[in-house]
Amino acid sequence: MITVGVLGAHGRMGSEACAAVEGAEDLELVASVDIGDDREALRAADVVVDFTHPSAVADNLRWCVDAGRHVVVGTSGVGHELLDEVRGRLQPGQGVLVVPNFGIGAVLMMRFAAQAARFFDSVEVVELHHPRKADAPSGTATRTAQMIAAARAEAGLGPGPDATTHDPDGARGATVDGIPVHAVRMAGLVAHQEVLLGTEGETFTIRHDSLHRSSFMPGVLLACRKVAEHPGLTVGLDAFLDLD
Amino acid sequence: MITVGVLGAHGRMGSEACAAVEGAEDLELVASVDIGDDREALRAADVVVDFTHPSAVADNLRWCVDAGRHVVVGTSGVGHELLDEVRGRLQPGQGVLVVPNFGIGAVLMMRFAAQAARFFDSVEVVELHHPRKADAPSGTATRTAQMIAAARAEAGLGPGPDATTHDPDGARGATVDGIPVHAVRMAGLVAHQEVLLGTEGETFTIRHDSLHRSSFMPGVLLACRKVAEHPGLTVGLDAFLDLD
Amino acid sequence: MITVGVLGAHGRMGSEACAAVEGAEDLELVASVDIGDDREALRAADVVVDFTHPSAVADNLRWCVDAGRHVVVGTSGVGHELLDEVRGRLQPGQGVLVVPNFGIGAVLMMRFAAQAARFFDSVEVVELHHPRKADAPSGTATRTAQMIAAARAEAGLGPGPDATTHDPDGARGATVDGIPVHAVRMAGLVAHQEVLLGTEGETFTIRHDSLHRSSFMPGVLLACRKVAEHPGLTVGLDAFLDLD
Amino acid sequence: MITVGVLGAHGRMGSEACAAVEGAEDLELVASVDIGDDREALRAADVVVDFTHPSAVADNLRWCVDAGRHVVVGTSGVGHELLDEVRGRLQPGQGVLVVPNFGIGAVLMMRFAAQAARFFDSVEVVELHHPRKADAPSGTATRTAQMIAAARAEAGLGPGPDATTHDPDGARGATVDGIPVHAVRMAGLVAHQEVLLGTEGETFTIRHDSLHRSSFMPGVLLACRKVAEHPGLTVGLDAFLDLD
C-alpha cells in the first residue's frame, strides 16, 4: 500500500485526485492539505501530490523535498531554475516528477506523432475545442507541433510539400516550427486533437478526444504508483509509461 | 434508350463520359465530337454533353440549343449573360442543365450542410487536398461556406460562439462569409471535405472523400437521363436529385 | 409569448425541459405538474409537454386534448390505437406532436442518410455507445438502417456489393433489412453514430456525436414553438424542420 | 551508394520495387531477375530483394544467403523451419530481413495500438475494405487484435467493459482474442483500419488509410538501406524503424 498526501486538496484537480486515490485499492489517502492547513500531516505520506498554484508551488516543492517525500507536481509554473535547485536538494532514492499534462492520451498522442512524423512527407495538426477558449492554437497542439518539428529536423526532413500560392486570408491557427496547426472552436466540443500524416498512397491519423477532467486521474494514479521507482527529477509522464 | 453525343470527347472528362455512356444499359453513345470534327453528328443525339473549354462553350451551347438538342454543360465559364441568352433561345420542352460540379457527393454535402446549419450554434469547414493544389481554400469549400452562411442568415442566426482573443498567426484557409474554412494540404490525399456543426451537447459531421474522377460519372449519367424531363434552363445537379 | 406547461416536471427530461423553457425568451413556463399534482394548472398553457411514463401517457394525452391544449409528447409507449383515438378527438386547429427522438442531430442524420442512400452502391452503419448499454445494435441505428433500406428499395436498389465468403465469427451488431450495422461499446463514449456510404471513387459519411441530454432541449423548444402551426396529429420532429 | 538486385522483377510488387530503387538517389539497381533468368547477376548487389512466390522463396533465399548477399524477403510463405535453417547458414555480418508487411503506416498502427492498449479500459478495431475482399476480418486487423490482446494480457488487463445482453444477430467481423473487430465492406474504399481505445472521459483513435501499392515502397527502400546494419535474421520492419 502506497500512502498519498494531496496538497491543494480543495481545488478542482486536488479534490478529484483525493477521490481517485481513495478509490484505488493499492493507494491510501493519508493527508489532504490546503491553504491554511499544517503541512506536517504530509510527513505520513510516501508520495505528495501538489495541485496548488503557480505562486505556491516553489515553496511547497522545497518543503516536500526537504521532508524526504516523493513528489508529483501537477501545478504549472515550475521553471528551469526551480528544477535545477530541486535536483540539487534531492536525497538518494528520492523521486520528483513534474507533469505538464496528466492526460495519458495526450502524452501518447504527442509521442506517437513525433515517432511517426519521421516516416511521412506531410504532417498537419487540427485541434478542436469548446468556443470559450481564448487562445489559438492550444498549448497542447503547439507542443505537439514542436515535438513533430524536432523529430523531423533530427531525421533530416524539410517542410512537407505544399504548392499553395493563393491563400490570402488565413483561418484560426498558426504554423508552428513549420507545422500547420488548424484551430476549430465549436459548441458541443470539449478538447480534441488530430494529427494527420501523409505520404503518396497512404495517410495516418492519431486522434485524442478528451471529454472531462476525470480523464487525467489515471495519469495521477500512475504517477503516484511509480514515482518512487524513478529516483531523481523527471519531467513529463512519458518516462513512466514504459513505452520503449 | 436515350441517345447521347459528347462534345470534347477526347479530353479527360469527355473520354471518361464516353466510356460511362457506353457502359450504361439505358444510354447509347451516337456521336463523339472534338475540335475539328463536324458537329452535325450531334443531331442524332437526344442529349449532348459538353466537356470542351471555357473559350468554346458559348458557341457550342448556342449551336446545340438551335439544333433542338437537350444539353448538359460540364464546361466552366458559362456566365450570367450566356445563361440569359440561352433561356431566350430555348424551344418548348427543351432542357439545358449547367453543372458546376457533377460529384453527387459534393452536391449532397453542400445541401445537407446548408440544411443542418440552421440547427446548430457553430459551423466550420475543413477541406483537405493533395499538396499540388495552388488555391486555399478550395472552390467547393468556399461555395459550401457561402451556402451555409446564406442559410444561417435566412434563419436569423449570427456568427457561432468564439471567445478567441489570442490568435496571432493564422493557418492555411479563410473565413468565408463568417464561416471558418481550414485548408489541409497533404501527400496521400486527393479531395476531401468535412463540415463540422455543433451545439452544446452534440456535434454533427458531414464528410465527403473523393478519390478519383470516376466519381463524377454517376452524376453525368443522371444528368443525361433526366435533362429531358426538366424543360428550361437549370443550374446545378440538385434539382435533378429529387431530394424534397 | 407562448405559454408552456410540463407534465412529469420532476423527472430527468421534464426538469431539464422546465429549465430550457424558462431560459427561452419567447416561451413562458406557466405550469409544472408531476404525479399527485392537479392537472388543471395546465389549462393556462398554450402547449403542454408530456415527459411522464408509458403507463401514464394515454390518460394524460386524452386529458390534454379534451382540454384543448396543443400537446408535445416526449414519452414513449404511444401505440397506433392511441394515435387513431387522438386523431378523432382533435378539435380544428389543435396540434399534437409525438416525438420518438428530440435530438435534431439524430433526426437530420436519419433523413440525410435515407436521402443519400439512393445515390451510393454501399451503405453501412457504425454505432458507438458507452459500455453500460444492454442492447446491440441501438434503436436509433436500427431505425436508421430501416429508413435507408426503405429508401433503397423505393429507388430499386439491391444490396451493396460484398464478396465476403469467409466470415466465420461475427462481431457485435446485426444486418438490419440488408444494411450491416456494427456496434462498438467503449468506455469514454456516450452516444455516437456514423453512416458510411460509398461508390467507386468516393465515400460519404454522416456522423452524429451526442454527449449529453441537454442536446435534446433545442428539439423540445422547437416543438413547443411550432406545434400550434401544425394542426392535426404529427409523428416525428422531421415535419417541423422545414427541410424541403 | 548501395547496390540492389530484385528477384521477381516482373511481378507487380517487384516491378514497382525496381522503379522505386531506380528513383532513389542513394540506391542503384544492378540486377532485375525473374523466372528463367540467371541469378548470377545478383552477385553484384549488396542487397537482394525477393518478391517471387511462396513456392520459390525457399530456394531463392538459400541461394542468396550462400552467395553472401544481404536479403530482404517480401514474399510470403517463409515458415519457422526455413527461418531456422537460414539463421544457421548466415555468415557473420550478413543480414536477412523477412517482412510480412512493408506498409510503414500499418506497422506503426499495430505498434502504437499495442502500446496504447495498456492504458485504456476498452479497445475495438474497425477495418474497412473494398467490397471485393473475400475474408473478414482482414489479416492486418486480426494481427493487430492479437498484438493488442497480448499487450493487455502482459499488463494484467482483462476484457473491456461490455454490458451487452441482447445482440442476437452479429455483423461482419469477429472477436479476436477478446478484442472485437468490425469489418466494413464498401465501394469506394481501398484498405483502411481504425483502432479505437477508451477510458472514462477520453477516447484515443489510430487510423491508417492505404490507397495504393505505392505506399509500400518507402518500406522497401528503408529495408534496402538498413538491412546491412542489422546482421542476423530479423522478422518485421519494426526493428528497423528506430522507434525506441
From TrEMBL, chains A, B, C, D:
<feature type="binding site">
    <location>
        <position position="39"/>
    </location>
    <ligand>
        <name>NADP(+)</name>
    </ligand>
</feature>
<feature type="binding site">
    <location>
        <position position="130"/>
    </location>
    <ligand>
        <name>(S)-2,3,4,5-tetrahydrodipicolinate</name>
    </ligand>
</feature>
<comment type="function">
    <text>Catalyzes the conversion of 4-hydroxy-tetrahydrodipicolinate (HTPA) to tetrahydrodipicolinate.</text>
</comment>
<feature type="active site" description="Proton donor/acceptor">
    <location>
        <position position="129"/>
    </location>
</feature>
<keyword id="KW-0521">NADP</keyword>
<protein>
    <recommendedName>
        <fullName>4-hydroxy-tetrahydrodipicolinate reductase</fullName>
        <ecNumber>1.17.1.8</ecNumber>
    </recommendedName>
</protein>
<feature type="binding site">
    <location>
        <begin position="8"/>
        <end position="13"/>
    </location>
    <ligand>
        <name>NAD(+)</name>
    </ligand>
</feature>
<keyword id="KW-0220">Diaminopimelate biosynthesis</keyword>
<dbReference type="Pfam" id="PF05173">
    <property type="entry name" value="DapB_C"/>
</dbReference>
<feature type="binding site">
    <location>
        <begin position="139"/>
        <end position="140"/>
    </location>
    <ligand>
        <name>(S)-2,3,4,5-tetrahydrodipicolinate</name>
    </ligand>
</feature>
<dbReference type="InterPro" id="IPR022664">
    <property type="entry name" value="DapB_N_CS"/>
</dbReference>
<comment type="similarity">
    <text>Belongs to the DapB family.</text>
</comment>
<feature type="active site" description="Proton donor">
    <location>
        <position position="133"/>
    </location>
</feature>
<keyword id="KW-0028">Amino-acid biosynthesis</keyword>
<dbReference type="InterPro" id="IPR022663">
    <property type="entry name" value="DapB_C"/>
</dbReference>
<comment type="pathway">
    <text>Amino-acid biosynthesis; L-lysine biosynthesis via DAP pathway; (S)-tetrahydrodipicolinate from L-aspartate: step 4/4.</text>
</comment>
<keyword id="KW-0963">Cytoplasm</keyword>
<dbReference type="Pfam" id="PF01113">
    <property type="entry name" value="DapB_N"/>
</dbReference>
<keyword id="KW-0560">Oxidoreductase</keyword>
<feature type="domain" description="Dihydrodipicolinate reductase N-terminal">
    <location>
        <begin position="2"/>
        <end position="102"/>
    </location>
</feature>
<feature type="binding site">
    <location>
        <begin position="74"/>
        <end position="76"/>
    </location>
    <ligand>
        <name>NAD(+)</name>
    </ligand>
</feature>
<feature type="binding site">
    <location>
        <position position="38"/>
    </location>
    <ligand>
        <name>NAD(+)</name>
    </ligand>
</feature>
<comment type="subunit">
    <text>Homotetramer.</text>
</comment>
<feature type="binding site">
    <location>
        <begin position="99"/>
        <end position="102"/>
    </location>
    <ligand>
        <name>NAD(+)</name>
    </ligand>
</feature>
<dbReference type="InterPro" id="IPR000846">
    <property type="entry name" value="DapB_N"/>
</dbReference>
<keyword id="KW-0457">Lysine biosynthesis</keyword>
<dbReference type="GO" id="GO:0008839">
    <property type="term" value="F:4-hydroxy-tetrahydrodipicolinate reductase"/>
</dbReference>
<feature type="domain" description="Dihydrodipicolinate reductase C-terminal">
    <location>
        <begin position="105"/>
        <end position="240"/>
    </location>
</feature>
<dbReference type="InterPro" id="IPR023940">
    <property type="entry name" value="DHDPR_bac"/>
</dbReference>
<dbReference type="InterPro" id="IPR036291">
    <property type="entry name" value="NAD(P)-bd_dom_sf"/>
</dbReference>
<keyword id="KW-0520">NAD</keyword>
